[in-house]
Design goal:
This is Leucine--tRNA ligase. Its main location: cytoplasm. The protein is an alpha/beta fold. 36% of the residues lie in helices and 17% in strands. The strands form 12 sheets. The chain has a 4-stranded parallel beta sheet, covered by helices on one side. A 4-stranded mixed beta sheet has the order 15-16-14-17. It has a 4-stranded antiparallel beta sheet with strand order 23-22-25-24, with no helix packed on it. A hairpin with a 2-residue loop joins strand 24 and strand 25 (566-570). The protein binds ligand ANZ. Ligand ANZ binds at residues 264, 313-316, 319, 395-396, 399-400, 402, 404-405, 407, 410-411, 489.
Length: 894
């Protein structure tokens, strides 16, 4: 009884594909051949194995790839593992077993499960980010980030004076120029305050901290200063924002990236504060102020703020006349200088307290505003009036210039602050008509804040100007006077790139030591030919609760290399898990290359990724970091195009049966192994695609799985004679030609499935195939010319059963490269459609017309109908309404 039995046919075909390397991708597409690079977000191989969310996206790309091969494209469809990360290290801490052991076990489980689902990956291209030969190139890319163009020149023995350093930098002297060169590095060290998570024993990136807790594990996070490696992603902010235009991504994900990058356009303005004795200017320094403004109007606005000014950033230069105080961040370098003796104690105390708070705590709107007066004043460049300078922690040192002019009448935070500290509130914008007369009066009296645009008041010659016009005018004036200029700021912060963990890529960096074993401050990059820097053997994985990395406990041979007689200490921080996923899509293309991360010709042939599918949770982290690295590699000539992922699709979340998120604690997790055991991989694949649109959130249903399983059983019986003893063709299969109705069903199905696959609309494609099976199950004779193309259409979705049926139909090779079925458009079209014909608005009859019948053809079909002819005969036609494809209405009189 040859029943449909996935348990026998699935392993059979998986073994066949494996042995024959059926899905090996060519090194490059053939001359003139179209290519498809379809990429899945590679999994983190956790100890739990695959969950049903993984096969959702993986099946979608697999269908696309399998159809593309049959359509003659060269297909790149690789898989790998994002295998650095905390859990393996935590397991090592508990058991003392090296993280590599557990990682390899987990990878083996994932690989088995992925193979069990019949995905058409080219397994010879598999990579894991923890492979030494892989992270050798991750380290190589880090060196590209660390390197500057100037390093190369220096290596060629050219002194700094011969380098292409801008003139204005050279004028500042050689020391300055050297520092400047260092500042051009995209990888640099900094000891900024960091998010230290004692429970995880690591520093976290801002992106990994949510409401003061770690994203992973929900542990408290505190702020402390620490030497860290940073990547200057901010240098790419503008391009990361602008190049989103080039991409075929959903508007939702683009918007998330844009918000994260947070481009803001405004102006920088210099407020005079004087220097030395006169520091903290008041109106008494007006003579000095006048001579300064005169110099400024001659020299123009300097790139870096000069000592006698406080530089601020504002998005509302049109409110300059309403600035009633200024605020500098507690970390601002001018705090000491501008604080007068009377205020020193209060200011110091305030700054110490602010250092303990996170940026989020400091800037939240609802929080009570705090601050202290420095005792000093700055001079407002538009009217020469003194403005008191305060220190307050709602201004962040890391944004803009770390200093603001405060306009309480038109900014909410400033309004709250001014109310709290009794600072004058001066309205300079007349509210628009959308504000009630009552509220407008309050706004003008400084009793209510107004943040919208409007018309300028109390602003001297600018009165009457609309906000946008005023902004442009005043910015131009400031520019002319050398007092300000247009400026752009980004919310994006530099990327904190070091972790105090063991299980990550070591940095290829050496710190020079002096004779006493202290760091000299000189840093050396590990020479390219000495890569990779492998992780050392460690006996003790336990974190010590201090932020020094575990690699500090590495054996001396690893930790203290001597090169050319100089002793060094290796960098002991490791890279974050994001590093490995920043470029894996490149390595798949050339995984064995020992000379370079990727061969340029191969890169050019396959990149960019044509379809990237994965979860929406990666909207800002992985997808932004990878774009950043790609752009750096582009600038360094390693890759040939500015963006890595041309089309991005986010699969929707799969919920539990009860519509709740699947989780261990809710006990509603579905294990793909169990589903495959009961119904087979083809049913799991088909079900996950049939649940609904790929991008929608949808609940699991075992009944649904059983439904698609039954469908596959019907498809099986269409081809196979289940009553026979041996596997063979059903007696209904015939070599006779198909009749018209059968042909129409076939061609409609081919067209619909072809289009649906192209649009990633897999659920509707499956529905069409179900209709096909229903139709042919009722036919006495099933022509081979109909059922063979159907098996090919089914194969990307349910590849195992399709291969088996193909074999039963008498073919002896895999169908993976069979030409994709073609449809005849005239047969795929509906023959005719029915259109209601009304007389005086009442439907009297229906007529058959071609689906693309135009106005004339539709009208004549209606007139030709005997009933209509009789009803309008001899009457006056007042009006005739013809909507092709919809209806005809004769309005008649008499
Ligand atoms: C005066 C003003 C008047 C402002 C007004 C707003 C409204 P974006 O870029 O859109 O977030 N600001 C500037 N630097 C800051 C810092 N380091 N910390 C906290 N706040 C800062 O907003 C920029 C505005 O945020 C700037 O424009 C400044 O306040 C404030 F009616 O300047 B504004």
């Amino acid at each position: 009884m040859p029943r449909y039995n996935p348990a026998t046919i699935e392993p059979k075909w998986q073994a066949f594909w494996d042995e024959n390397k059926t899905f090996a991708a060519p090194a490059k597409p053939a001359e003139g051949q179209a290519k498809l690079y379809a990429l899945d977000m590679f999994p983190y191989p956790s100890g739990n194995g695959l969950h049903v969310g993984h096969p959702e996206g993986y099946t979608a790309t697999d269908i696309t790839c399998r159809a593309a091969r049959m359509q003659g494209k060269a297909v790149m469809h690789p898989m790998g593992f994002d295998s650095f990360g905390l859990p393996a290290e935590e397991h090592a801490i508990k058991t003392g077993e090296h993280p590599r052991v557990q990682t390899e076990q987990n990878i083996a489980t994932f690989r088995r499960q992925l193979k069990m689902l019949g995905f058409s990956y080219d397994w010879d291209r598999e990579i894991a980010t923890t492979d030494v030969e892989y992270f050798r190139w991750t380290q190589w890319i880090f060196l590209k980030l660390y390197d500057t163009w100037f390093d190369k020149e220096q290596q060629r023995g050219r002194s700094i004076g011969e380098l292409e350093v801008p003139e204005h930098v050279m004028e500042m002297g050689e020391d300055f120029a050297r520092t400047w060169v260092d500042e051009q590095r995209l990888a640099f060290q900094s000891s900024a305050p960091v998010n230290w998570c004692p429970a995880l024993g690591t520093v976290l990136a801002n992106e990994e901290v949510i409401d003061g807790k770690s994203e992973r594990g929900d542990h408290p996070v505190v702020r402390m200063p620490l030497r860290q490696w940073m990547l200057r992603i901010t240098a790419y902010a503008e391009r990361l924002e602008k190049d989103l235009e080039l991409l075929d991504w959903s508007e939702g994900i683009k918007a998330l990236q844009r918000n994260w990058i947070g481009k803001s356009t405004g102006a920088e303005v210099d407020f005079y504060v004087g220097t030395g004795e006169s520091s903290g200017a008041t109106s008494s320094v007006s003579a000095e102020y006048k001579s300064w403004t005169k110099t400024r109007s001659e020299t123009g606005y300097p790139e870096k703020p000069t000592d006698e000014v406080l530089r601020i950033y504002t998005t509302r230069p049109d409110t300059l006349y309403g600035a009633t105080y200024m605020v500098i961040a507690p970390e601002h370098p001018y705090v000491d200088r501008l604080t007068t003796a009377d205020n020193a104690k209060a200011v110091n105390k305030y700054c110490e307290a602010a250092a303990m708070k996170s940026d989020l705590d400091r800037t939240e709107l609802a929080k009570e505003k705090t601050g202290v007066f420095t005792g000093s004043y700055a001079i407002n460049p538009v009217n020469g009036e003194p403005v008191p300078i305060w220190v307050a922690d709602y201004v962040l040192i890391s944004y803009g210039t770390g200093a603001i002019m405060a306009v309480p009448a038109h900014d909410e935070r400033d309004f709250e602050f001014a109310q709290q500290f009794n600072i004058p509130i001066k309205a300079v914008i007349q509210p628009g008509d959308h504000v009630s007369a009552e509220d407008a009066a309050k706004i003008l009296a400084g009793e209510m804040v107004y943040t919208d645009p409007g018309m300028a008041i109390n602003s001297s010659d600018y009165n009457g100007l609309k906000t946008e016009e005023f902004k442009a005018k005043i910015t131009a004036w400031l520019d002319e006077q050398g007092l300000g200029r247009q400026a752009v700021n980004y919310k994006l912060r530099d990327w904190l790139f070091s972790r105090q963990r063991f299980w990550g890529e070591p940095f290829p960096i050496l710190h020079e030591l002096d004779d006493e074993g202290n760091k000299t401050g000189h840093i050396m990059a590990v020479p390219e030919e000495d890569l990779p820097v492998d992780l050392p053997h460690l006996d003790d994985f336990k974190p010590h609760g201090r932020p020094e990395p575990p690699l500090d406990k590495a054996p001396n041979e690893w930790l203290y290399p001597v090169i050319d007689g100089v002793k060094y200490k290796r960098e002991t921080n490791t890279m974050p898990q994001w590093a490995g996923s920043c470029w894996y899509y490149l390595r798949y293309l050339d995984p064995e290359n020992t000379e370079a991360p990727i061969d340029p010709e191969i890169e050019k042939a396959w990149m960019p990724v044509d379809l990237y599918v994965g979860g929406a949770e990666h909207a800002v982290l992985h997808l932004l970091y990878a774009r950043f690295w790609h752009k750096v590699l582009y600038d360094r000539g390693v890759v040939s195009a500015p963006e890595p992922f041309q089309k991005l699709v986010n699969q929707g979340m799969i919920l539990g049966e009860n519509n709740e998120k699947m989780s261990k604690s809710r006990g509603n997790v579905i294990n793909p192994d169990d589903v495959v055991q009961e119904y087979g991989a083809d049913s799991l694949r088909l079900y996950e695609m049939f649940m609904g649109p790929l991008e929608a959130t949808k609940p699991w249903s075992m009944q649904g799985v059983s439904g698609v399983y039954n469908f596959l059983g019907r498809a099986w019986r269409l081809v196979v004679d289940e009553r026979a003893d041996e596997l063979g063709l059903a007696p209904s299969i015939t070599d006779e030609p198909a009749n018209e109705a059968q042909l129409r069903t076939l061609h409609k199905t081919i067209q619909a499935v072809t289009d649906d696959i192209a649009n990633l609309s897999f659920n509707t494609a499956i529905a069409r195939m179900m209709e096909f099976v229903n139709f042919f199950t009722k036919e006495k004779q099933v022509p081979r010319t109909c059922v063979e193309p159907f098996v090919l259409l089914l194969s990307p979705f349910a590849p195992h059963i399709a291969e088996e049926l193909w074999q039963v139909l008498g073919h002896d090779d895999t169908l993976a490269y069979e030409p994709w079925p073609q449809f005849d458009a005239s047969l795929a079209k509906d023959e005719s459609i029915e259109i209601p014909v009304q007389v005086n608005g009442k439907v009297k009859t229906k007529v058959q017309v071609a689906p693309d019948a135009d106005k004339e053809a539709t009208e004549s079909a209606a007139r030709a109908d005997a009933k209509v002819a009789e009803l309008i005969d001899g009457k006056e036609l007042v009006k005739l309404i013809v909507v092709p494809g919809k209806l005809v209405n004769f309005v008649v009189k008499g």
